Each structure stands twice: as C-alpha cells, then as structure tokens.
User: Fold these one by one.
Assistant:
Number 1:
Amino acid sequence: MIYNTFGIPATADHYIEVTDRQQLLDLIAQGTLSSAPFFVLGGGSNVVFTGHYHGTILHLENKGIHLLSTDSTSGTLLVEAAAGEQWDAFVQHSINNSWHGAENLAAIPGTVGAAPVQNVGAYGLEAKDIIHSVRAIHTATGQEKVFTNAECQFGYRSSIFKQSLQGQYIVWSVTFRLSSTFTPQVNYKALSDALSAAGLVHPTARQLADIVASLRWSKLPRPDETGSAGSFFKNPIVTPQHYEQLKTHHPDIVAYPVADGYKLAAGWLIEHAGWKGRTLGRCGVYEKQALVLVNLGGCSGSEVIALADAITADVKRLYGVTLEKEAIII
Ligand SMILES: Cc1cc2nc3c(=O)[nH]c(=O)nc-3n(C[C@H](O)[C@H](O)[C@H](O)COP(=O)(O)OP(=O)(O)OC[C@H]3O[C@@H](n4cnc5c(N)ncnc54)[C@H](O)[C@@H]3O)c2cc1C
C-alpha cells in the first residue's frame, strides 16, 4: 500500500495505524515516540518520501464528526471532527447537514488533522477562517491541550504546529465554527467567473462546492490518476521595491498585494522560466499548472528533488526570487 499521493513507494522501520486515543497514550507511555524519530502521516498528500524512514510512521485513523452546539440566536454551530477523517468527507458531511462555511474548501485532499497544521486554503478561504479550536496531544507527556484559533498562530500554509511546536503535538480533533445560514463566499475571481458562466447567481451550498471541485480538477491532477503533492512551491512574498523592479522588466507578472509586500504567483515564475510541461527523469511539471510537479510513472523522491532544485535555481537566476517548498520532504 502506498500512503502518499505522489505515489512514491517508501518504507519505514515501523508503521502504526492509530485509531483510538488510549492507543496513542499507550504508545507515548511506552516511549515509542521518544526512543526514535517519528512522523505523523495523514493522507500523505503534501509529502515526498525520499527513501527509507528510520523511525516510526504514525498514521492517524481516528473517526467521527459531531455537532457540539448550536447558538439559535446567531446560527453559529460548533462541529468537532476527528483528525483521521478525510477532509472532503468532513466538508461533504457538513453540506449534507446544512452546516455552512467550508464549501470553498471542497475536495482538498488529505485529512482533517492536517488542515490546521497546513492551514489549507483555496478559492478565497483558509482553514483558519472556520477553525474554532484544535485538540492536540503532547508527544512527550500525552497531555491534551485545546488550542484556540489565535494560539494556532495561523499563517500562509503554516501554523504553530509547523513552526515552534513542530513535532511536539499530534492534532487529535478540530472544532469548526460553522453556520446554519448559508452565505456564499464568492470574492475569488475564478470562482465568481465560474458561477456566472454556469448561470448560478444565487448558488446553493451544494452547487458552490460542486463548482469549486470542478474548477479544482480542471487545473490540478486528480490524485487517483496522476501522482503529485498539489502545489509543490509556496507563492513567494517579495518587498514592494523588488516587486516594482520585477514589474518594470515583466509587466505581465502575476502578484497580489499583501501586508508585507507582494505575493508573486510561483506558477507564473516557473512557467516563464520555461518549465511548464517539461520533464526531468520520471518527474515533470504539470502541463496545466506549473506549480505542480507530477509523477510520470515510477518517479523516485530524489527525482522530485532534482527537478525542484533545477526549477528553484532558474527562478532565482531569472527573477532573484527564492522559491520555498510547500511539500514536506521526508
Ligand atoms: C491534487 C492536490 C491538490 C491540493 N490542493 C490543495 C489546496 O487547494 N490547498 C491546500 O492548502 N493544499 C492543497 N493540497 C495539499 C494537501 O491537500 C494539504 O496540505 C493537506 O492538508 C495535507 O493533508 P494530509 O492529511 O495528506 O497530510 P500529510 O501530507 O500526511 O501531512 C502534511 C503535514 O501535516 C502533518 N500532519 C498530518 N496530520 C497531522 C496530525 N494529525 N497532527 C499533527 N501533524 C499532522 C504531517 O506530519 C506533515 O507535516 C493539495 C494536494 C494535492 C495532492
């Protein structure tokens, strides 16, 4: 069985599926997580394995999605989902129960547990916008801590679980703040264009999620057809001065103003560096979206890294911009 969407075969000293809390606490008490390196694996949709993992892979498989509370005045709903649930199963379950707010994040691969770690985002929404709190277990003591939204220190595809607390907590469940009222969030241009093209002026929650999913798969490879880790690189942020320089030489460069400068579309940089559709070994740059590296069949982790390094070097040479990997290399 291959537990990563890139489809790269990999082995580890130990592989443990964790289905209940006591099992995890027993593993911690027995020293399983302190005696050797460990890695928490969700759906493997943002990781690249580069060889044998000398340690323990913990694969979370705990399940359950529950409505915790309803505020009948404000319509606010608190919904808790187990880390081992598939993210899209949570989104679809919410839509089916008229719990609203997650529609724009439909069809993102991976698990609920990884969503706060990565602060997943798409079509104008990020997980941080709907996360109320995160229940996590300390990997050394087994103690549980509930992190408020603010304590998670969410950033662009980042959180405290990937930064200062990396490796220290296992996300066990996530509580979302949803709503009994559906308010479509259609500020993202590609999404509003697609809704207009489909004649959906007032989409239902189901229609919005379906349009999001079809937009997604028109641009990204489906994991069951082509191996990838989604966007391989982050969109880099540059200073206003650097952006102005780039804009002078490349008037069509794609960028969005952010608090500390400009966020450049990494896909544009990679495409204009001539990499879109190109291949190196058995790994390639997806022909519909240059931000995505794909497995052309039998690709190894080191081939992925070789391609990523070649792209990074060209983008640095041409634009003076350092690309940072979004995918996690193990
Ligand atoms: C085709 C495709 C499209 C994608 N589109 C998007 C997109 O639109 N937006 C987006 O943001 N991402 C996207 N991604 C990336 C991916 O879906 C997300 O990063 C997702 O959150 C990864 O979930 P996972 O369960 O597979 O995590 P994994 O890849 O298994 O792990 C990712 C990281 O989270 C950690 N982790 C996982 N579970 C836990 C846990 N319970 N506790 C602590 N740490 C944990 C892992 O240790 C690792 O560091 C896409 C990926 C693919 C393949």
Note: The chain has eight helices and 19 strands.
Number 2:
Amino acid sequence: MKLYYIPTTRAVRPRWLLEEMGIAYDLVRVNMTMTKQSEYKELHPHGKVPVLVDGEVTIFESAAICTYLADKHIEMGFAPPLDSPERADYQQWLFYAAVTLEPPVEHYMFNVLPNLPEKLLPGFFRSETSLQESRQWFDRVAQPLREVLVGKNYLVANRLTTADIVTGGVLLWAKKLGMLLDDDPLTEYINGLMQRPAFGRADEDFYAKIAP
Ligand SMILES: N[C@@H](CCC(=O)N[C@@H](CS)C(=O)NCC(=O)O)C(=O)O
C-alpha cells in the first residue's frame, strides 16, 4: 500500500489513521512540483495529495481515503458497523468536518500564508477584513462541534473514529494558525488527539513547513 504524502498537508490524516491501525504502508514523499507532472496526474487529476494506492484501488480525497481504510478494516473499530445507530452520527461529523468546518480554516490560512500563488488567492481577497471574516465564519460553524464535545474526548461511540481524524486534521491547522484560544473546548479536544502516539508518528514534521 502506498500513500503519496507532503508534510503538514491533508495527507497527514490518512497517515495518522494508518499509524493508528498499525498496518504496513509505504510513504511516498512528493513535492508540489512532482504533483504537477503528468505521471502523477494519472493518480490525482488535480495534482494534489493525498493519494492512496492499495492493490487495484487508487483513491484520492483525504476523508474518502480515511473512510475507505476504516470500512475495509471495520473490525478495528475506526468506523461504526454499517447497521449500527452510530453510523449516522459518524457520517454526519465526517462530512461536517470536510464540507463545513474546513472552508473557513482554509480561507484564513490563505490569508496569512506568505508567497501564496496569485491564482489561489488574488491579492484583493487578502485583507484584514477577510481574515476577520474567516475567523467569525469559523467560530460560527464550530459551535455545534464545541457543544457535542462537552464531556467527551471523541465525537462518536466514545472511541477514536475517522470522524475524529478528519475533524482533528482540520483543527490542527486551526491550532497551528492561532485560530483556537486556550479556553476554547476545541483546544482541549485537539490537544488530547495530538497526544496519541500514532498522531506523533504521523505528524513528525507538523511545524516543519508552513510557518511564516
Ligand atoms: N479536498 C482534498 C484537498 C487536497 C489538497 O488540496 N491538497 C493540497 C495539500 S493540503 C495539495 O496537494 N496541494 C498541492 C498543490 O496544490 O500543488 C483532500 O482533502 O484531499
């Protein structure tokens, strides 16, 4: 099994899950030049990471890779069984993380990262107002997450699932970018996830790259 990977990116999510699962994989470190070559675009049409190649299966999109792995090894408990009532909650938080929680964090990041290509964020979108708007946007969409996590370490079934890994992947960026205050319940949640040994192994270079 091969995971195409760039440190500090969304590729950390499936790597973290693979480390939690303890299954063997080859980490293929690429860079943003290699991902734009036609050979790589056969794996990922947009030239992005992560991509997982597992035998006959080639799959991209970090959340899809995580759910693929969790379902393939469902006996390991990183996804609730298909017929369990927890499955709905699990899918809800997974989609929420990828579709609702991530956009304001990405928008904030684009505003603070130096040297971002103009095509990704034209200069006129980069402003103090835009920064504040993405912070308010994040605070608003994160509220249900704060509420559901009261008294809990994990989102679903009182154990780590890929819903936590994808949500954690988004909150890692939020933490790294300084979007989380110390007294935000999300800080306690993400700090707890980061203490997991598998996370440490997956994110050895967490602070390596995108620091301004
Ligand atoms: N929704 C996709 C986003 C993939 C994505 O944008 N990956 C970024 C890193 S986080 C990337 O590969 N960027 C390289 C580039 O644009 O050249 C996912 O979750 O996998």
Note: The two ends are 34 Å apart (CA to CA).
